[in-house]
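hiii, so i know i said id send this last week but things got crazy w the move. better late than never?? heres the sequnce for the chain we talked about at the cafe, plus the structure i predicted for it. fair warning i was half asleep when i ran it
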Amino acid sequence: MTKTKIWMIGSLAIAGLILLAGYFVGVSPLLAQASLSDAATRDAQAQNTANESTLAQLEVEFAQLPDLAAKLAATTSSVPATANMPDFLAQVEAAQVASGSKLTNFAQSDAQPYIPVAAAVDPSAAPVEPAADETATDAAAGESAVQPAAAEIVPASSAAASVLNAQFVTGSNFAVIPVSMESKGTLDQVLAFITAVQNGPRLYLVTKLDITFDETEGGFTANMDGFVYSLDTESVAAVADPGATASVDTAGADTN
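okay and structure toks below
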């Protein structure tokens, strides 16, 4: 092997080493940096896509704000933050005028703290079955009665309790106010009065209804027992978002 060939082989080897050194020292770090940049770009694009989706959802919710505000106003009128009985009495009087009946009695009891149905009813207790003679007596009385029978209305609170979060609505912020009233008039008038009271702005949950016919006066009398409610919304908001307010008094619902 001549010296020329040896020099050529050595030169090629040195050139190869230089190329390898240049790749590892110069090109490889640049490729790694480019790969990291691509990954960062993909992450940024994914984050932008998520932000665009969130923004679109916020725009939809913002467009719904007027409807939500209207629903909130209706709910606040239905279950106000205080007892506000003068407004409810005005609602009852308006129902009386619209129906043509005569309101002969209106009684309000002291407010009571709300007790969840699950806590008030023992699920292990067996239902009480009426005795056979009592059932027969009731059936006979129903067949011979001329006057409309009293109607016991089961409250819808048991169904509502399944959707109420006990963490937010408790006896310390939700008050139950018993209200009873009596109305007289024709059958159509007292029924119209009952419907108007139940469908007014303020929620009135009827728990007992008794309609009787007075043969002496020749008219009908409706006796209703039920509840109106008040909810301390500031207390509920404080439980839902403790950071929204620094201090909220939750000692009890305002019943004034």
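btw Residues 3-63 form the longest helix (61 residues). thought thatd interest u
miss u guys!!
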